[in-house]
Design a protein that fits this description.
single chain, mainly alpha, two-stranded antiparallel ribbon, elongated
């Protein structure tokens, strides 16, 4: 009976091969060549996973244990945060008695200090609002005069040339004195 079942299976139609027997014979012939391709098994598997892995759902990865459950991690982080909040609660306050002066200072701490202007400053502000800057021009001129030191030269190269010229003039004067004698 086993032989008749096998012969029946070999006679079943198979696409491209005609019968299942022909397909089986072709498959066994090709399978004998597989040991030559064993070295390509790992790179082939990696390549296949490279394309298939993004299509695998996160639920399956979590179920198998390949990926951590983000919901469980979020719940754990929330529990840790609540524990940290509970630990941060301040200890019971100690009663401190403040003087009336300290209480008044606390009550007015949020208010800014008003700047008081002198009569001269008030007149300058009034003139500036009217568009008259003559009072400020006096201050600007005074500042400009104080900031300028007469004879000061910011260019170092010119100073070096001036020093050399003075040295040459002194040498010439010394030579003239020697000629007079």
């Amino acid at each position: 009976m086993a032989a008749s079942l096998t012969s029946l299976l070999f006679r079943l139609p198979a696409p491209l091969f005609g019968t299942a027997g022909t397909a089986f014979a072709w498959g066994t012939k090709k399978a004998s060549a597989l040991p030559r391709y064993v070295g390509w098994a790992v790179p082939g598997a990696v390549g296949a996973l490279w394309f298939v892995w993004p299509a695998v759902s996160d639920d399956w990865k979590i179920e198998v244990g390949i990926m951590a459950d983000p919901e469980a991690a979020a719940a754990e982080a929330k529990a840790k945060a609540e524990a940290a909040e509970a630990a941060k609660k301040p200890a019971p306050a100690i009663a401190v008695e403040l003087s009336q002066e300290a209480k008044d200072a606390i009550a007015t701490a949020h208010k800014g200090h008003e700047a008081t202007m002198s009569a001269e400053e008030k007149t300058v502000v009034a003139h500036v609002k009217a568009g008259d800057f003559s009072d400020l021009e006096k201050d600007w001129d005074t500042f400009a005069e104080k900031s300028i030191v007469p004879g000061e030269d910011d260019d170092d190269d010119d100073e070096d040339e001036d020093d050399e010229d003075e040295d040459e003039d002194e040498d010439d004067d010394d030579d003239d004195d020697d000629d007079d004698e």
